[in-house]
Write a structure and sequence with these properties.
Strand content: 5-15%
CATH superfamily: P-loop containing nucleotide triphosphate hydrolases
Number of helices: 9
Largest sheet: 5 strands, parallel
Radius of gyration: 16 Å
Helix content: 55-70%
Low-confidence stretches: none
CATH topology: Rossmann fold
CATH architecture: 3-Layer(aba) Sandwich
Bound molecules: adenosine monophosphate
Mean pLDDT: 95
Order of helices and strands: EHEHHHEHEHHHEH
Shape: globular
Length: about 190
């Protein structure tokens, strides 16, 4: 089972992906986590990623498409995968379609977790207030979030009509409690 989780930064895609991993034995492919690992490794790509991520901007499409193309070919993806943070532009969505077709893999569900910008900004302010500085992600602050939200509305939100026009998009209200969001995602998957 192959799933895309869409939604703005901070909507809970990562949290819900982990629930799906536990319940369905499929793997979570978070491009944000992969880039953070590259940053931690100090590689050349990691250095580029750090600058891009701290500014709340996006990495180039060709790099991200290659990372995902390589990753979904690995054996642990055989039972399926959840894409969390990818695709993030229409070019990435088109490249993904092509890649899945070439690899003979289906796309089973595209689920949007929607959360209003104001709620996301309230959430980040609470998180910053509650998390010791040493444990905070460098890109986890209200200023970067505002920029990431602008980038989301400009570059990522156009993917929604892309999948909607193919009759694939299912929407979940991400402002409900985490368990309720999980239940609704499960219901979408069960309904096929
Ligand atoms: P995330 O953890 O998904 O919110 O991603 C953190 C940051 O990594 C984003 O703000 C981008 O700078 C970068 N990033 C993650 N996924 C992608 C992607 N698919 N395309 C471009 N940049 C990405």
């Amino acid at each position: 089972m192959n799933i895309i989780l869409l939604g703005p930064p901070g909507a809970g895609k990562g949290t819900q992906a982990k629930v799906l991993v536990d319940n369905h034995g499929i793997v979570q492919l978070s491009t944000g986590d992969m880039l953070r690992a590259a940053v931690a490794s100090g590689s050349e790509m990691g250095q580029q990623a750090k600058a891009v991520m701290d500014a709340g901007k996006l990495m180039p499409d060709d790099i991200m498409v290659q990372i995902i193309s390589d990753r979904i070919s690995e054996p642990d993806c055989e039972k399926g995968f959840i894409l969390d943070g990818f695709p993030r532009t229409t070019a990435q969505a088109e490249a993904l379609d092509k890649m899945l077709e070439e690899k003979g893999l289906p796309l089973d569900h595209v689920i949007e977790i929607s959360v209003d910008d104001g709620v996301l900004i309230d959430r980040i302010n609470t998180r910053v207030a509650e998390t010791p500085e040493a444990e905070r992600r460098d890109d986890d602050n209200a200023e970067t979030l505002k920029h990431r939200l602008e980038v989301y509305h400009e570059q990522t939100a156009p993917i929604l009509p892309y999948y909607e026009s193919r009759g694939m998009l299912k929407k979940v209200d991400g402002m409900q409690p985490i368990d309720e969001v999980s239940k609704q995602i499960e219901a979408i998957i069960t309904a096929g």
